[in-house]
């Protein structure tokens, strides 16, 4: 019994001595690792927030894009801190970096389409060919912009339908923005009989169009003969109006032309 008790005491003392030796050996490494983790977390947070504030103040930079760069810097610094901490314990960081690079390449190949959408989303947010609320038209889609994300752009069609378009499809095609410019030109055509005096008809049409207060004085509206057949002359009407009132102005002027020309005794073909 005495020998067993002595063996237990000896084993306990040996374990304690080994634990003390390990604590002395790795204590500073553990302390340094904790300091690096805490300090790295704080510094990455401060730097990422500072970058967000700087980027968000740049004219034309979207909130989504500023947040993206903030998170990219934040998590990139955290990965760097984690690799540095592993180096404190003698881990070969070169192999870890190589593994991360290989993993990143594999993920990039697997998510090639998604990464294309992200890259396109960044370019759309930086160059801003369209903004929220504007009406755009491409070869495949058209509608009012609802939200511009990193992966896709959400839209509403004119008939109230929800539409989501991948950013890569919008970036790789010509975009017609119907809302960007403050004013737009409108074109209308009207046909009159050849028995009507063309000069009189032009003056009547120009008077009706110019009387609408929404029609721009500059550039001045104009009416000209655009086509001629054996029984009719086609008059082309061009005028400029505010973009927001462009459609309603067109509808009203068509009504005014119909009623006004009838009053002038000018028949419309």
TrEMBL record:
Residues 189-268 form the Mechanosensitive ion channel MscS C-terminal domain. GO terms for molecular function: mechanosensitive monoatomic ion channel activity. Keywords: Cell inner membrane, Cell membrane, Ion channel, Ion transport, Membrane, Transmembrane, Transmembrane helix, Transport. The keyword tRNA-binding does not apply. It comes from Rhizobium grahamii CCGE 502. InterPro entries: LSM_dom_sf, MS_channel_1st, MS_channel_C, MSC_TM_helix, MscS_archaea/bacteria_type, MscS_beta-dom_sf, MscS_channel_2nd, MscS_channel_C_sf. Residues 114-180 form the Mechanosensitive ion channel MscS domain. Its main location: membrane. Pfam families: MS_channel_1st, MS_channel_1st_1, MS_channel_2nd, MS_channel_3rd. Belongs to the MscS (TC 1.A.23) family. It is a multi-pass membrane protein. The keyword Zinc-finger does not apply. Mechanosensitive channel that participates in the regulation of osmotic pressure changes within the cell, opening in response to stretch forces in the membrane lipid bilayer, without the need for other proteins. Contributes to normal resistance to hypoosmotic shock. Forms an ion channel of 1.0 nanosiemens conductance with a slight preference for anions. Residues 71-112 form the Mechanosensitive ion channel transmembrane helices 2/3 domain. Homoheptamer. The chain crosses the membrane at residues 20-47, 68-90, 96-127. It is found in: Cell inner membrane; Cell membrane. This is Small-conductance mechanosensitive channel. GO terms for cellular component: plasma membrane.
């Amino acid at each position: 019994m005495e020998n067993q008790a002595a063996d237990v005491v000896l084993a306990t003392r040996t374990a304690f001595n080994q634990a003390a030796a390990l604590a002395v050996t790795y204590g500073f490494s553990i302390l340094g690792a904790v300091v690096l983790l805490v300090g790295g977390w704080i510094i990455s947070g401060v730097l990422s927030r500072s970058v967000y504030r700087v980027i968000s103040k740049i004219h034309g930079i979207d909130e989504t894009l500023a947040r993206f760069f903030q998170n990219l810097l934040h998590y990139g610094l955290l990965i760097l801190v984690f690799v540095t901490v592993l180096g404190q314990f003698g881990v070969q960081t070169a192999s870890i970096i190589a593994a991360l690079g290989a993993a990143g390449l594999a993920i990039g190949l697997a998510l090639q389409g998604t990464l294309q959408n992200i890259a396109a989303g960044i370019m759309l947010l930086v160059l801003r060919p369209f903004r929220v609320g504007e009406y755009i038209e491409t070869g495949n889609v058209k509608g009012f912009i609802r939200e511009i994300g990193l992966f896709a752009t959400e839209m509403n069609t004119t008939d109230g339908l929800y539409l989501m378009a991948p950013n890569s499809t919008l970036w790789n095609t010509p975009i017609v923005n119907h809302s960007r410019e403050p004013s737009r030109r409108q074109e209308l055509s009207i046909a009159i009989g050849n028995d009507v005096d063309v000069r009189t008809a032009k003056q009547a049409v120009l008077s009706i169009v110019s009387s609408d207060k929404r029609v721009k004085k500059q550039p001045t509206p104009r009416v000209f003969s655009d086509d001629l057949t054996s029984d009719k002359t086609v008059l082309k009407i061009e005028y400029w109006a505010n973009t927001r009132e462009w459609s309603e102005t067109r509808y009203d002027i068509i009504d005014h032309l119909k009623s006004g020309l009838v009053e002038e005794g000018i028949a419309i073909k």
